[in-house]
Each structure stands twice: as structure tokens, then as C-alpha cells.
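Sequence only, no structure available. Ideas?
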Amino acid sequence: DMAGAIVQSSFTSIWDMLDFQPIYYRLFPKRLFIHQRFDSISKVKSLRMPILLIHGICDRTVPATMSQALFDGITAPKELWLVPDAAHNNVA
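Reply:
I predicted one. C-alpha cells follow.
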């Protein structure tokens, strides 16, 4: 059993990530080619351990709103750290 988890700069689902990307990715027929959705947003509801989410506010790779959405979906004890002036790879 895990006592808790730390999640850094995570996305809600791979489909949401494709929708966030530039227009040429949004036009990609994702349902035809992507079979694993990495659907974190639907899985967080089942978490029972404490979760710490960390995300840089200036992240242009994965928007911080995705960590906020994950945070909102977690029913277990949780904390969200939005790091000012941090991007995707420099939240520490």
C-alpha cells in the first residue's frame, strides 16, 4: 500500500492534450489512432490516498488548469500547489 502520491504537471487525458495543442493536432483523427486515452480525470475519483498535485502556472506544455481539474475530481485528502513563474520542467 502507498501512503500517498505526488503528481507533477499532469494532464487530464491524452485527448484533452491533443485538443490543447496547435490546430494541426486538433484536426488529427484521434479516435482512429489513439486507443489508450490515459484518462486520469476519470481515475482520480477512485483514489483513496492523500495526493499532492504540483504544477507550474506558466506551463505551456500542459496547462495548469488540467491539474486544477484533477484536484477538483479527487475526493481523497488532497493539496494543489500552483507554482508562480514555473513552467513544465522547473517547478522545484
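The chain has one domain: 5-83.
Hope that gets you unstuck.
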